Amino acid sequence: MSLEGGVSTPSKAIDALRRLVRERPTDFDTRLDLAELLVTDKLTDEASLVLREALALKPDNAEALRMYAGLCYERNSLEEARDRLETAARVGPADPKSDLLLSRVYLGLGDKHRAQAFYQLALNQDPDLEDKSLSASIGLAESAKRVRIKPAGDEHALDYESSPTGISFKDVGGMEDVKEQLRMNIILPLKNPTLFREYGKRIGGGILMYGPPGCGKTYISRALAGEIDAAFYAVGIHEILDAFLGSSEKNMHNLFETARRNAPAVIFLDEIDALGQKRESGSWGRALRGTVDTLLIEMDGLGKPDKPILVIGATNTPWAVDLALRRPGRFDRVIFVPPPDQGAREEILKLHLRGKPIEDVDAAGIASKIDRFSGADIQAMIDRATEEVIKRAMRSGKTEPITTRSLLETAKKMRPSTTEWLATATDYIRYSNQGGFYDQVKSYLDKNQ
Ligand code: ATP
C-alpha cells in the first residue's frame, strides 16, 4: 500500500487513512485499506464501523465481506459471520481460508455436518490449512461411518457416508405428508414397476428436498433407503467440488459408479444449491460447470429398472438452486420437508428419549411449548438437558431422571432454528413463487400461523 506523505509507522498510516476516508465519503478502497490496518492493530470496533461503511458502498465485495465476517466471528456473532461468508462465497473467488473460517462458524452454530464439509473444502484447496484440533472437534477424526472410496488407478478419492442405514420410516417421528409422498413417488413404483409404467410413471430418478435446516432431510432420506433396502451414499456438494481441474467431475462420476455397483442405491447430495452459485471465472467456475454437466449426464443414464438409483438433492435455499437442475427428468419432483408439527415434535421427543432415564415426561405438553423447533433442535434440547441431569447426578451421587421441567428449562434457553428460514420463504412466496414452486410451504404456513 502506498501512502501519501511518506508515512511509515502503522498509527501514522492509520491517521492518514482516517483523514482520507473523511475527505472522500464514497471511496471504497481507502476504507478497505484502513480497515485492514485497524484489524492488524486490533482496533476492532473501529474496523467494524469502517467495514460496514465500505459494505454500504459495495455490498457484494468479497474481500470486505470476509474481513467483516472475521470480526463477527471474534465477537461471537456467528450467524452474521455465516451470512457474510456465504455471500462472499457466492460472489467472490474461492478462498480456502474463508472456508476454514466457515467451518469454525458452523461448528459454533452446532452444525457439524457443514463444519466438516467446509473443513474438507478448505483442505482440498490448501492442505497446509490442516488443523488437528478443529478436525477433532467436528468429529472427522473419529468418523466411523465414512469410508474412503478410491477407484483403482485413480489418484483422487472422496469420502462419503456409505452404510446400511439401519433406520426406516418407523424411526422418523411424524412427517406423515413427506412419508406419503415418498411412498407414492418412490416406494410403490419400485415395488410395482409394471403397474406404474402402465400409467406412464417413472421409476427412480431425481427428487429435490428442501426446507429449513435440521428438519430431517438427511434423516428421512436415510430412512427411505432403509425402507427399500438400498445402499445409501450421502455427500455434500462442497466435498465433491475440488479446485483442481477435472477432479470435481471425477468425484461426481466415482460416486455414481460406486452407487451403480451397489444398486439399488440412494445418492443423497446435500447443499445442491452450491452448484447454482454464479462464479464468473477461474478454476472454481470450471469446477462448478463441469460438476453440473457430469451430474446431468449421470442422471440421464440412470438405473436399469431392476437396479434403480435414486438421487436426492437437498437444500435449505431452494431459491438458489440452478433452474437447469429442475427440468423434467432431473430433480423434477419436489418435496418440502417442513418443521415438525405438534404430533411430530411429540414423537421425535419420545424417539430421542428412548433408553434414557426419564420420569413423568409430558411429551405432548413439552411439544406444545416448542413450536418451530426443528428435529435437530429437539435433539439438542434433550442432549443439553441430559448433560445437566448428569452433572446433578454426579453432585448428588444418585441417578437423576430427565423430567418435563428439566427439558422445558433447557428449551427456554434456546431459539427455534426454523423461524428465520420461514420468514425468508414467506418473502419468496410473496414476491416470486415461481409458478407455484413454494405452494407446499404456503399451505404449511396457512395451517401453522
Ligand atoms: P440440514 O439442512 O442442516 O442438513 P437436515 O434437514 O438434513 O438438516 P437432519 O440432519 O436430517 O436435518 O436432521 C438432524 C437430526 O434431527 C437428525 O439426525 C435426527 O436425529 C433429528 N430428526 C430430524 N427430524 C426427525 C424426525 N422426524 N424424527 C426423528 N428425528 C429427527
CATH fold field value of the largest domain: Rossmann fold
Low-confidence stretches: 1-8, 142-157
Number of helices: 20
Work out the helicity level: 40-55%
Q: Using the alpha-carbon principal axes, give the shape.
A: globular
Q: Per DSSP, what share of the residues sits in E-state strands of 2 or more residues?
A: 5-15%
Q: Structural class given helices, strands, pairing?
A: alpha/beta
Characterization of the model:
By secondary structure, the protein is of the alpha/beta class. It has four domains: 10-137, Tetratricopeptide repeat domain (Serine Threonine Protein Phosphatase 5, Tetratricopeptide repeat, Alpha Horseshoe), CATH 1.25.40.10; 169-336, P-loop containing nucleotide triphosphate hydrolases (Rossmann fold, 3-Layer(aba) Sandwich); 342-412, Helicase, Ruva Protein, domain 3 (Orthogonal Bundle), CATH 1.10.8; 418-447, no CATH class. Helices cover 55% and strands 9% of the residues. The chain has helices spanning 10-23, 28-40, 44-57, 62-74, 78-91, 96-108, 112-125, 132-137, 176-191, 193-198, 217-227, 237-240, 247-261, 282-300, 342-353, 363-369, 375-396, 404-412, 419-431, 439-448, and strands at residues 146-149, 158-163, 205-210, 231-236, 265-270, 309-315, 333-336. The longest helix has 22 residues, at 375-396. Bound molecules: adenosine-5'-triphosphate. Adenosine-5'-triphosphate binds at residues 111, 113, 172-175, 213-219, 270, 316, 340, 344, 348, 351, 375-376, 379. Adenosine-5'-triphosphate binds next to helix 11, helix 15 and helix 17.
